[in-house]
Design brief:
By secondary structure, the protein is an alpha+beta fold. The protein contains ten helices and 14 strands. A six-stranded mixed beta sheet has the order 7-6-3-4-5-11, covered by helices on one side. A hairpin with a 3-residue loop joins strand 4 and strand 5.
Length: 318
C-alpha cells in the first residue's frame, strides 16, 4: 500500500523542542521501473532496494542542486551496486553480478559483496552547477557493516559526525526506510540552560531510537507511512512537513556516452571500430541504446571539448 494517490512518498518530520529529525520513505513505482529492466537474484534485489531507500533519505537533506551517488565496489559475486538520487528525488539504480555465479536467496551483504574483505563504499556529492575547476566531493571507506543500514550509519558517523540511525527493507514490490538523525546542538546559551537542553535532546533521541527499534522488517514492508508514524510516535510531539515524491529518471544522454568513449582514447576506440564496424552501448540504468559509427567517433575527437566523467558507464557491446 502506498500513500498520496499511489505516488512514491518521502515524509519529513521533526521532534518539537529537540534537535532530532526523521524521515520515512516508500518507493514502489520507481522500484518497479528499475526492476523491470533487469533480472536480479532475490538477495541482490533486497540490498539494492535498501540502498535505494537510503539514498532517498539522505538526498532529502542535500543543501545544493545536485545529486548523491552511492556505490559499493564488491569482491564477491556482486561486483557493483550504484544508486543515484538528485535533489529533486529523481532516482536510478543498477547492479552488476558476475557472470556464471549462483547467488543464494538468503545471501548476506558480506556474502554478496565482501567475502574477501576488500569491498569499498563510496558516496559522491555531485553539484549540478559546478564552479570552474570544481570537482565532486567523494568519500571512500571500507564496507563496514553486516547490513546496508549499518554501513551507512558508520559512514555518517565517521564522515559527517552525525548520529544517524536507519531501518531499511525491500522486496519485489517496495523499498521502504526510516531515518532518525540527531542534529548538532545549538550554541549561544548559558551553561545551565545548555546542559538542560542537551539532556532533554539526548532523552528525546534515545526514546525515538528505542521506539523505532521495535519496528520489524515485515512491518516496515507492509505498512504505510502514516500508520507507521502514528504507531511508533503517537505519544511524541512532532511537526510534519509536506511530502515529497521520488520518481525514476535516467540522466543518460548521447553526449555523456560520447564523453565516456573519449575517455577510452582514440586508439582504443579506433581499434574497436576496426573490429566491430560500429560501437553499440546500452545504458546500464534504463537500457537505452546508443550507436556510434566511424563518422560519429571521428567527431568526438575534433576540438578541445572537455570530457565529463560518466559514473558507472555502460559496457561497449562486442
Amino acid at each position: 500500500m502506498t500513500t498520496d494517490n499511489n505516488k512514491d512518498t518521502l515524509q519529513k518530520f521533526i521532534f518539537d523542542n529537540a534537535a532530532v529529525r526523521g524521515e520515512f520513505v516508500e518507493i514502489s513505482s520507481t522500484w518497479h521501473e528499475i526492476l523491470q529492466r533487469h533480472s536480479y537474484p532475490p538477495a541482490v534485489k533486497t540490498v539494492l532496494g535498501e540502498m535505494l531507500a537510503a539514498a532517498a533519505l539522505l538526498s532529502a537533506n542535500l543543501k545544493f542542486n545536485g545529486a548523491i551517488v552511492m556505490q559499493i565496489h564488491g569482491d564477491g559475486p556482486v561486483r557493483l551496486l550504484v544508486v543515484e538520487c538528485d535533489s529533486g528525488l529523481r532516482m536510478r539504480a543498477t547492479a552488476k553480478v558476475a557472470d556464471g555465479v549462483s547467488v543464494a536467496d538468503d545471501a548476506s551483504l558480506t556474502d554478496l559483496l565482501n567475502p574477501g574483505g576488500k569491498a569499498r563504499f563510496v558516496i559522491t556529492l555531485d553539484p549540478a552547477d559546478k564552479m570552474p575547476g570544481q570537482q565532486p566531493y567523494q568519500g571512500i571507506v571500507p564496507l563496514d557493516g553486516d547490513d546496508m543500514a549499518t554501513v551507512i550509519e558508520n559512514y555518517m558517523l565517521r564522515s559527517e559526525q552525525l548520529d544517524t540511525r536507519l531501518w531499511l527493507a525491500a522486496d519485489d514490490n517496495v523499498a521502504r526506510g526510516l531515518l532518525l538523525q540527531k542534529l548538532p546542538r545549538h550554541s549561544g546559551k548559558d551553561d545551565q540552560i545548555k546542559q538542560e537542553s542537551e539532556a532533554d535532546e539526548l532523552e528525546t533521541w534515545n526514546r525515538a531510537v528505542m521506539l523505532a527499534s521495535t519496528l520489524k522488517q515485515e512491518e516496515l514492508l507492509s505498512t504505510d507511512i502514516q500508520t507507521l508514524m502514528n504507531r511508533l510516535f503517537w505519544e511524541e510531539t512532532i511537526r510534519v512537513f509536506d511530502p515529497a515524491h521520488p520518481q525514476f529518471h535516467c540522466s543518460c544522454t548521447r553526449e555523456k556516452v560520447g564523453n565516456m568513449l573519449k575517455m577510452l582514447g582514440r586508439e582504443e576506440v579506433d581499434g574497436a571500430l576496426d573490429e566491430l564496424g560500429q560501437l553499440a552501448i546500452d545504458c546500464d540504468f534504463c537500457g537505452k541504446h546508443y550507436a556510434f559509427d566511424k563518422v560519429d567517433c571521428a567527431q568526438l575527437f575534433v576540438g578541445d571539448t572537455p570530457v565529463e566523467v560518466l559514473i558507472a558507464a555502460s559496457d561497449v557491446k562486442h
